[in-house]
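Final report, closing paragraph on structural work. Over the funding period we assembled a curated collection of sequence-structure pairs, and we close with a single example.
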Amino acid sequence: MRRTEPTSIGDIIKEIIKNDVTLSRSIREGRVLNAWRDIVGNAIADATNKISITNGRLFVSFSSASARSEFFLRRNEIKKALNKIAESPVIEYIIVK
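Its predicted structure, as stored:
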C-alpha cells in the first residue's frame, strides 16, 4: 500500500515502538528508572544502591535502613506513580533487598 502523503519520522518511530512490544516495554522501563529521583525524593534516591526491573518486578536495594523503611511505607504510592510515568503497568511487584 502506497501512502499519498508524506509521513514524519516521529510518526514512523511511534508506529515501530507501538508494534514492537519488547522495545515498547524497554522504553517504558527506562522512563521509570529515569524518573526514580523525582518520584521517591532525594533522601530515598541518595540511599538507593541499585534499582532494576525484570519481568514486571522492581528490585531495589538501599544503603540506609531508614530510607528502606520510608520506601516500604510509601511503596504502593511509589508504584502507582512509577506506572503512571510509564503510561502502563510496568511494575507489578516491588522487591526490596
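The longest strand covers residues 48-54. The mean pLDDT is 87. We thank the funder for supporting this effort.
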